[in-house]
Amino acid sequence: MMVLHIGNGVTVRVRDLIAFFDFDSMTVASISRRFLSDAEKKKRIFDCTGGELPRSVLLVSDGKEKGGACRVLFSLLSTAALRARLASDEND
Using alpha carbons only, how large is the chain's radius of gyration in Å? Predict the structure, then answer.
């Protein structure tokens, strides 16, 4: 089972990873802000930053529910760092 370390000792299974986005660009568009607001209301946001300002937003399959349910994780790692970690896992 391949996992991706997203910072602060948190890992996610690569097969459950749907997408990841830059936090700053994710908060610019109104539809993205609405998505984050809805996820917060549904208690699907998990802050893995230890209280710091997030650099990326990850969408991870919940695995429990069907119909597009997902968790939203905030990470301190940049999207470039996450991409590099995924690439290094593929080359191992």
Answer: 13
**Pair 14, 4: CB distance under 8 Å:** yes
pLDDT in tens, 25-80: 998 999 999 999 999 999 999 999 999 999 999 999 987 656 667 999 999 999 99
Closest CA to 37 of 17, 57, 19: 57
Residue 43, judged by CB atoms within 10 A of its CB (0-12, 13-18, 19+), counts as: exposed
Q: How many CB atoms lie within 10 A of CB 6?
A: 24
| Global model pTM greater than 0.90 | no
Q: How many domains does the chain have?
A: 1
**Whether residue 1 has pLDDT greater than 80:** no
> Cα separation of 84 and 4, whole Å?
11
Angle at CA of residue 53, ends 49 and 56, nearest 5°: 75
Amino acid at 62: D
